[in-house]
Design goal:
With about 675 residues, chain A is of the alpha/beta class. Chain A has 21 helices and 24 strands. Chain A has a five-stranded mixed β-sheet, with helices on both faces. A five-stranded mixed β-sheet of chain A has the order 20-22-21-23-24, with helices on one face. Chain B has about 170 residues and is α+β, with helices and mostly antiparallel strands. The chains are: A alpha/beta (about 675), B alpha+beta (about 170).
Chain lengths: ~675, ~170
């Protein structure tokens, strides 16, 4: 029997909707809201979604469960007035410089103000104007545009499991901030940018580097080449109200040439190269008893997350650089000769669905003698804006093809943009080695799909793969792996929902359907290609013949692999216990960070302090607790003078202190 | 030397406090209260340590610490003076007392702690003792129906004691 709810006196079938807002959407009524986001917990703070329920009066539709026979009104006189007042009050404190705001076209506040026909704001500003926070390579924050819906806070906490930002202060002074009001660069932000993607206004936006791209293009000295990431091709069309077809990729190539890029290449080519390198690394580890599972390392947000939170797993990460960086390394190596240009005059611009790529290309590992492998990373949105700035009628231009050889990719490289794509591409490469009878364009249903955590067990259990997206899922999986509860050979991690197609550099996603469509289109792009396995790419073969010798060769390691390091969660001073009198003391540092704490650092610190106090050695030693000495895998870490002790034991520390005290007492 | 032991003991106490409250995220407020009692404020690096120990993000702990006006992220003076400026106290003349104390200690609404770290003076919204309005609290001792002269006399007394102890 169907159950009905009456919305504005019209019956609506109530299936499994858990709140009135979703039910109303089904009935084609868009109730305004800032803080309701289907992927996140229900917050009920913005009060815009108020509706009237018969017998109950005004309720927030996002947090009210329907019941059979419920009668709801969504636009009574009172409700319309209420909504207008709320939006007016938000506008009173909002920086209304819409003409200068990069989110103007996608701003929910602006849209709502328009929809509710607000033509004047009756209230005056009550909050002081706050300074912008420009602290990160990838993201910019403007608190004067914040409507305090908390979407960013909840995304970072609930989906990414990090919680790098939260509400600080109270009432009038409340703001979204990182710990201690620090910039995002000083804390454990992984630059995934999803806070900017869920922000309904321009309070957090992706930092624009468009001007740097134009500078390079307009510099006659420079030869500027572009690489286009796989996921860009299935989303750019949205910026021009075009359906996302394969044609858009060709149009983008043409547009880039019109803008002034000298060569246009495909990051999917480098993804093919990544497949060969990473699969070879995996096969070697598998057959030589190396560290398993191997974690993918294509996602720079995940890599930084692991560096902050899972130092013990860093050795498990594939040493392969991401496709963006592999492309850069190859480009800076082969293109100067091929294009007859000096290395320092070659500018590699990558066009990415991702905000964290801006951070990745600035990592010192990828800059050699002052020359970066990738000079500049701009997002899908930024290239869309450049096309508009140049006045190119994107809808009407004829598609063109990419330049060779770095513009030739197989389907394996293309599906990298989907969550599960890397696993599938690696499997296409490695299938022979594991005697998995699959066609070359294997469709691995188990790793496809939208769920945040998926697994595939193949080759009679000899090959176990896990695919996760969203770092809270990754966290859950990593903890299980460390605890020995689950065993996998390959773990693919993507920070953003759906993988790169859902990256924060892409046009703003308004619905899950829109994101799923991108995923589907990327799989279609693979289907229509002639080659589906990375090892079939003739230009990859040529590259190994002329430059790299063989997969995982010394040369390949030099150019295409990298290493990871532990990072502190927060820029912080150590907690010193010594008198600040400038006397020369032997420094004792005990790490009490999470991982050392779990291994008993607290006991060591307490006993060390006790020992020094009992013997009245306060003049000899300067004891401090540090939050991380960045060797968490070897904790607890203690240093006495210049001696660093890993896996410290109390007895050993006591002996060292004893010795030092004796020396000093003489 | 004494400073070293004091600091070290404070930190040992933090660890004891954390253990006493089972390192539970749900007990974050009593933990912060106990830690603030120890340090007289909440030092940043101690907050980070608490966050790490409780398994929550430092931003969340910072959010809690800044939400409640009871918590202070700035070092406070040795003597803490609170003047109620709620409706009842305001009507009964708290402003004059506030001005007198600020004038004497050379403080303002923004600068609440003296340079010698001896006094912190803050206004609060209501102490729930409206019958005694206007109310002044000096180091947890409540003084009702206070006048500016009485307030200054209390400060004089503290100054004298401090000098004798020095």
């Amino acid at each position: 029997m169907e159950k009905y709810v009456y919305i504005n006196d019209r019956p609506v079938v109530w299936d499994a909707e858990t709140n009135i807002l979703d039910l109303a959407r089904k009935a084609n009524i868009e109730i305004p809201t800032f803080c309701y986001h289907s992927d996140l917990s229900i917050y009920g703070a913005c009060r815009l979604c108020m509706v009237e329920v018969e017998g109950r009066g005004l309720v927030t539709s996002c947090s009210t469960q329907p019941f059979e026979g419920m009668r709801v009104k969504t636009h009574t006189q009172q409700i319309l007035k209420l909504r207008k007042t709320i939006v007016e009050m938000l506008l009173a404190n909002h920086d209304q410089e819409c003409t200068k705001c990069s989110r103007a076209n996608d701003c929910k506040l602006r849209d709502l103000s328009n929809r509710l026909s607000i033509d004047e704001v009756r209230f005056r500003r009550t909050r002081p104007i706050m300074p912008k926070n420009l602290g990160s390579e990838c993201l910019e924050r403007d608190p004067n545009k914040c409507v305090l819906c908390g979407d960013c806070v909840r995304f970072c906490d609930e989906i990414q499991g990090i919680g790098v930002i939260d509400f600080a202060e109270r009432g009038q002074n409340v703001s979204v901030n990182a710990a201690y009001g620090k910039s995002l660069q000083q804390v454990d932000c992984i630059n995934c940018g999803q806070c900017a993607a869920v922000c309904p206004t321009g309070a957090i936006v992706v930092k624009s580097h468009i001007h740097l791209a134009w500078d390079a293009i307009h510099d006659p000295q420079k030869t500027v080449v572009a690489q286009i990431a796989p996921a860009v091709r299935v989303a750019l069309g949205e910026m021009f109200n075009l359906p996302n077809t394969e044609l858009n990729m060709g149009k983008l190539v043409a547009a880039l040439r019109m803008i002034g890029f000298d060569q246009v290449y495909d990051t999917a080519f480098a993804a093919d190269l990544t497949v060969v390198e990473e699969a070879t690394e995996f096969i070697n580890r598998k057959s030589n008893g190396g560290k398993l599972p191997i974690f993918t390392s294509c996602c720079p947000a995940w890599v930084k997350y692991a560096e902050h939170n899972y130092p013990s797993l860093l050795e498990h990460l594939s040493s392969c650089q991401s496709p963006q960086q592999m492309f850069g390394a190859i480009a800076k190596n082969v293109l100067p000769e091929k294009l007859n240009v000096k290395k320092e005059d070659l500018v590699v611009v990558s066009i990415m669905p991702c905000t964290a790529k801006k951070f990745e290309c600035k990592r010192p590992e990828f800059i050699h003698d002052g020359i970066a492998d990738v000079d500049l990373a701009i997002t899908t949105q930024e290239i869309g804006r450049m096309i508009k700035e140049a006045g190119i009628d994107f809808g009407s231009i004829e598609p063109e093809s990419m330049d060779l050889p770095l513009g030739f990719a197989t389907g394996a490289g293309v599906i990298f943009g989907n969550s599960g794509g890397v696993s599938e591409a690696v499997l296409r490469y490695a299938a022979d080695k594991f005697n998995i009878p699959v066609p070359e364009s294997i469709v691995l249903q188990d790793v496809r799909g939208g769920s945040g955590m998926r697994e595939a067990i193949l080759a009679d259990g000899n090959l176990r793969m896990a695919v996760v997206h969203g770092l809270r899922n990754a966290q859950e999986l990593c903890d299980k792996i460390i605890a020995g509860e689950v065993h996998y050979d390959i773990v693919e991690v993507m920070a953003c929902p759906g993988g790169c197609t859902g990256g924060a550099g892409q046009p703003i996603v308004h619905s899950k359907k829109q994101r799923n469509k991108r995923t589907e289109n990327l799989y279609h792009a693979d289907k229509v290609m002639t080659l589906h396995r990375a090892q079939d790419n003739p230009f990859i073969h040529e590259l190994y013949k002329t430059l790299l010798e063989e997969p995982n060769s010394h040369k390949a390691h030099e150019l295409l692999h990298t290493a990871y390091r532990h990072r502190k969660r927060i820029d912080d001073d150590e907690l010193s216990f010594s008198a600040d009198d400038g006397a020369d003391r032997c420094k004792i540092r005990v790490c009490v960070g999470t991982s050392c704490y779990l291994r008993g650092a607290q006991d060591i610190l307490a006993k060390t302090l006790q020992m020094v106090e009992e013997n009245a050695w306060g003049n000899y030693f300067d004891i401090a607790a540090t939050f991380c000495s960045e060797k968490c895998d070897k904790g607890p870490n203690v240093s006495v003078g210049d001696t660093v002790i890993h896996r410290a034991e109390l007895k050993q520390i006591k002996e060292l202190i004893q010795k030092e005290a004796q020396r000093r007492s003489k | 030397m004494n400073t070293q032991y004091a600091k070290a003991q404070s930190f040992n106490k933090v660890m004891q406090i954390l253990d006493r409250f089972d390192r539970s995220e749900n007990k974050i407020i009593p933990i912060l209260q106990a830690v603030q009692e120890e340090y007289r404020y909440l030092p940043q690096e101690v907050l980070t340590f608490i966050a790490t120990s409780l398994g929550v993000s430092p931003a969340r702990v910072y959010g809690v610490a800044t939400f409640y006006s009871h918590f202070s992220l700035e070092p406070k003076g040795k003597h803490i003076i609170k003047m109620c400026d709620g409706t009842a106290c305001h009507v009964r003349g708290s402003s004059a007392v506030i001005d007198a104390i600020r004038g004497r200690l050379n403080l303002s609404a923004k600068k609440i702690t003296t340079d010698d770290m001896m006094y912190t003076f803050e206004t609060v919204s209501c102490l729930g003792a409206c019958g005694l309005a206007p109310v002044l609290v000096v180091d947890d001792e409540v003084h009702g129906q206070i006048t500016p002269e009485q307030a200054l006399a209390i400060l004089d007394k503290i100054d004298k004691e401090e000098k004798e102890n020095a």
